[in-house]
What we know:
It is built from 4 helices and 3 strands, in the order ααββαβα. The protein has helices at 11-19, 39-46, 80-86, 97-104, and strands spanning 55-61, 67-73, 93-94. The chain is α+β, with helices and mostly antiparallel strands. Strands 2-1-3 form a 3-stranded antiparallel β-sheet, with no helix packed on it.
Amino acid sequence: xxxxxxxxxxxxxxxxxxxxxxxxxxxxxxxxxxxxxxxxxxxxxxxxxxxxxxxxxxxxxxxxxxxxxxxxxxxxxxxxxxxxxxxxxxxxxxxxxxxxxxxxxxxxx
Length: 109
């Protein structure tokens, strides 16, 4: 059996493995300086995926500094007021990209 190239597993991958859930992963190059809201659409197109079935994970911060994670279709924008209501919060702000890796272990893109 051919050995796959080494890659860094995410916590989600570890959880799936521990639960015995089969999964696959894709890799792609992303421009870390690209701040456009179209990044998710671009990635879905690069991977040959239907954008309607592709989601982006957005991390928000409550006024108390707690994190709220929202998943929305890549073509959509997050309604912060609706997300705050759903989370039982008065308001939410988007987490700064520079804080994402330290807080979640994930890199934007």
